[in-house]
Write a structure and sequence with these properties.
With 270 residues, the chain is mainly alpha-helical. The chain is built from ten helices and two strands. Helix 3 packs across helix 8 and helix 5 runs antiparallel to helix 10.
């Protein structure tokens, strides 16, 4: 299982390199099902893996002029504050037993995995429905709707903190609609925002959990190597068709996790 896990770690990076996102949605299932990591700890590990991978992925975009620093700061600050507070205070405060619904015992790991699976299903629809980007690549005049951007940034940060996913599929449309960024800039800028909020969010866990740094750094290194493979492949493959295919895969994974958690809950993770 661990060998499959290491192969899947490379696929996380390939996805990030190919379509600028989506990889983070696979990180938690890979850690939980292939490496046997506890779901709550897996969301912390995921923040580090996604943050480091996105930081590496953001650098070539920055050199190509596809990162808008002003937007990254305005959107990123409320997001970073929210993700850090969520990991440091909210996640540890969730009780390990939350009661029973329809005979199913609701535990903290079950809640985290169900939240994550619902997010996967939502993300898959946005990938499947994505149309070829026809929007103009010339930047429109930027007008910041500050209250909406602050609220959206904080919500994305809280969600990232709870489930350990980067949230690129939420950030990219927000940057296009709220900050009037062209799509290529939105993708590059979102990588920088994801990197900052994920890595700073992860620091909120350092005092709450004991980390398996060997596993964490191995998976991160493989994901980063995958980014370079994905970046090469992105020059040869139609990203839109790929995104739809990946969307269907994420949908099936999300539905599988929901079914698995509801009907075959396992207590075997450590």
């Amino acid at each position: 299982m661990e060998i499959i896990g290491y192969i899947a770690s490379i696929l996380i990076g390939i996805s990030l390199g190919l379509i600028g996102g989506g990889g983070s949605i696979l990180t938690v299932p890979v850690l939980v099902y292939l490496f046997g990591v506890d779901p709550v700890l897996a969301t912390a590990y995921s923040l580090f893996i996604v943050g480091a991978s996105s930081l590496v992925g953001a650098w070539p975009k920055y050199k190509q002029g596809f990162v808008n620093i002003k937007t990254a700061i305005i959107f990123g600050i409320p997001s970073i504050v929210a993700v850090f507070a969520t990991r440091k205070y909210l996640v540890p405060a969730i009780p390990s037993q939350l009661g029973t619904i329809a005979g199913i015992e609701i535990t903290k790991p079950l809640l985290m995995m169900m939240l994550f699976a619902v997010l996967m299903v939502a993300a898959s629809f946005s990938m499947i429905r994505s149309k070829a980007s026809k929007n103009e690549e010339e930047p429109a005049e930027q007008k910041f709707n500050y209250p909406v951007i602050l609220i959206e940034g904080a919500l994305v940060g809280m969600l990232t903190g709870l489930v350990g996913a980067g949230g690129g599929f939420l950030i990219i449309p927000a940057l296009v609609m709220l900050s009037k960024l062209p799509m290529k800039q939105a993708v590059g800028t979102s990588l920088l925002i994801i990197a900052a909020k994920s890595l700073i969010g992860f620091t909120g866990d350092l005092s709450n959990s004991t980390m398996d740094w060997t596993l964490l750094l191995s998976v991160t290194a493989l994901a980063i190597s995958g980014i370079f493979i994905g970046d090469r492949l992105s020059k040869k493959i139609d990203g839109n068709k790929l995104k739809k295919g990946f969307g269907w895969f994420v949908l099936i994974m999300g539905l599988y996790i929901i079914a698995q958690q509801l009907f075959f809950p396992t207590g075997g993770t450590h």
